[in-house]
Design brief:
- By secondary structure, this protein is α/β, with parallel strands linked by helices.
- It is about 40% helix and about 15% strand.
- The protein is built from nine helices and nine strands.
- The strands form three sheets. It has a five-stranded mixed β-sheet with strand order 4-3-5-6-9, with helices on both faces.
- A hairpin with a 2-residue loop joins strand 1 and strand 2.
- The longest helix has 14 residues.
- It is globular and about 45 Å long.
Length: about 220
Amino acid sequence: MKRYGNYTRKEETLDSRLVIIAAEGECTEKIYFEALRGYAHNSRVHIKILERDEENKHNSSPEYVLGQLTQYKSENPIEQDDELWLVIDKDRWTDKSIRIVAQHCAQDPIYHLALSNPCFELWLILHKLDVSLESEEEKAKMFENKKSGRNGDTYLKRKVRALLGSYSEAHYAADQLVIHVADAITHAEALDGHKRARWPQGLGTRVYKLAQSILPKS
């Protein structure tokens, strides 16, 4: 057997891959990928979602998220087909900050960047809505993602809430979304007009590439 942190790869599943995820958000992404793991039920992929310690609970910079993966890699045996995924947003960070982690991913093929522009809520919305078919005015509002309302929620958070009935970063019905993950992948690809760019320069998300890696191959 081979041990990977708290995961032991058994001899009969030595051909399984590890997909290690480090995310910017403290709860939202974890909730989603735990639901996707259950829905995918892919015995050939073991998903581990890294958590931040109490001292770094609110440290969500792209460099720190990358550092989580780098530390995991240094402390655990990683095989050639395993994957380390950074799940981050563009909205709060400068191009320079994103460029640093994107360059690292480009230089080491085991690292992958799943950036959402402006944020992860766009990926959630794509499970229910083909955003590429929305009006240019609506897409501009989504990309600008302004805060408004009594709680100061962003436009995309309010949109997720309208689609699901309720939504907060720490609690939402991800199981209602993951059953539509195939639609989300199709919708996200339709938005991704510049696939050779290291991250979506306009409204878009590369989380679909991570979802494709997790789901069983047909």
